[in-house]
Specification:
With 438 residues, this protein is an alpha+beta fold. The protein is 32% helix and 25% strand. The chain has 11 helices and 19 strands. 35% of the residues are buried.
């Protein structure tokens, strides 16, 4: 809410509790002038009609519904009633609670998971943000050449983690959206976040399905990526039969693109289970496939188009995790393009990013031959020429390239730095020895 040139800022976040989550509504006065915050209770029914004799009331501790504490104030209101100069009394207002807020003052309203929650023990919003950042950084840290993409990608990764509980049953049932969510988690989270989904698929997938469900190929992509991340041959052996059955159903459907995607996922499962020979045969069959999927953005332009569907808070389609998964997978395609034994770093480098930095730390690589590898790299600029610094943690050989910034460059060295060719369009030339950078 705008107050002169400043704001009263409202933040809403959840905090895990013993039984569910406490939801915190935090309002901070960032304006220089003091303000009065009025909580007006208007009990109405589902058709927005006045609710006579409503069991909802406000007291100095919060809001009661039928005698149960539904909302808790972090401090008592200063008054119940009117603010001078404002008419807060309406025929529907049961009661009004008023909180004066000086500059930088905050008031919090909590919807508790349990009536007896102690709001004084709940963290502030800044601490919650730091906690989420810490969780995401455990599975890699990514900074794109566009702050908006970085922020949206982080929001998507965080949203995916909220879908971990219960995802396994959805994957086993081949529910729409579940495959992309699992695949995105496998490329942005930890093995602990995907292992239950793999166990549920191994134990609960129905091998007698009459045909391939619509999301079968995406589920195979997710299973393959998760198996590669888990990197546990004994556990992955249990995935082979149901994964092969599901892939067979997809191939039998006659959809060539879906068949290639499913075969790629099965190859990852076989590789993770230690069946290298059949995995290599499948890799040969899909060698010409570039990994593009119709529902996942394959270019920066398509990614921007998908981001326009997001709210200001970064959520998609009524907080749909499947769309967040598609966004992250599309954003990740801007960072790496993987094939067995090959890694193209930054396969597309948008012109708007030129001159800016890109940093990636510990990004999981899930190509069939990478076996749990991680990639770290960064771009720095010397005039119009980009310098690439890289460090690939892998126990297998790999050919690295960066075709978008230097089509002629490649290396098999897994750690190093190189000054790439770049192009002079719109950027200054590299200074000659003795010349000024100004």
């Amino acid at each position: 809410m705008r107050i002169g040139a400043d704001d009263v800022v409202c933040r809403v976040f959840g905090v895990a509790a013993a039984k569910g989550s406490d939801v915190v509504l935090e309002l901070t006065n960032e304006a220089k002038a003091p303000v009065a915050l009025a909580i007006v209770l208007k009990p109405v029914d589902l058709e927005n009609r006045l609710w006579p004799g409503s069991p909802v009331v406000i007291d100095d501790k919060g809001i009661l519904v039928s005698g149960q504490r539904a909302v808790i104030f972090d401090r008592p209101p200063n008054d119940f009633g009117e603010v001078e100069g404002l008419d807060l009394t309406t025929e529907q207002a049961e009661r009004v609670a008023i909180f004066p807020l000086l500059h930088s003052a905050t008031v919090r309203l909590v919807v508790p998971a349990e009536p007896g929650a102690d709001v004084r023990t709940l963290p502030e919003s800044d601490a919650v943000v730091r906690g989420w950042d810490s969780v995401l950084e455990r599975s890699g840290r990514v900074s794109f050449g566009d702050a908006a993409v970085t922020q949206q990608a982080s929001a998507a990764r965080a949203r995916l983690l909220l879908d971990v509980p219960g995802l396994g049953e959805r994957v086993a049932a081949v529910e729409p959206g579940s495959g992309r969510i699992l695949e995105a988690l496998a490329t942005s989270a930890s093995a602990n976040d995907v292992v239950r989904s793999l166990q549920a698929f191994a134990a609960g997938f129905c091998v007698w399905l009459p045909g391939a469900p619509s999301d079968a190929a995406a589920v195979m992509s997710g299973i393959g990526a998760a198996a590669q991340l888990l990197n546990d041959p004994v556990a992955c052996l249990e995935l082979v039969e149901p994964a092969a059955q599901l892939t067979h159903l997809v191939e039998r459907s006659g959809d060539g693109a879906a068949g290639r995607e499913a075969l790629g996922g099965l190859a990852k499962v076989l590789r993770a289970a230690g069946h290298d020979e059949p995995a290599s045969e499948l890799e040969v069959r899909v060698a010409g496939w570039d990994g593009a999927r119709d529902d996942v953005p394959s270019t920066f332009e398509e990614l921007v188009g998908l981001s326009q569907q997001a709210s200001e808070a970064g959520s998609f389609d009524s907080d749909d995790a499947a769309t967040a998964a598609r966004y992250w997978l599309g954003a990740r395609r801007l960072l790496v393009n993987e094939r067995p034994g090959q890694l193209d770093i930054l396969p597309e480098f948008p012109s708007a990013w030129r001159g800016g930095s890109v940093e990636v730390h510990d990004l999981s690589l899930l190509s069939c031959a990478a076996g749990g590898a991680k990639a770290s790299f960064a771009i720095r600029w010397h005039g119009y020429r980009p310098a690439l610094l890289w460090d690939i943690a892998s126990d297998q050989p790999m050919v690295l390239s960066c075709a978008s910034l230097d089509p002629d460059w490649s290396t098999t060295t897994l750690k190093g730095e190189a000054l790439l060719a770049g192009t002079a369009d719109g950027l200054a030339a590299v200074p000659a020895p003795g010349d000024s950078f100004s």
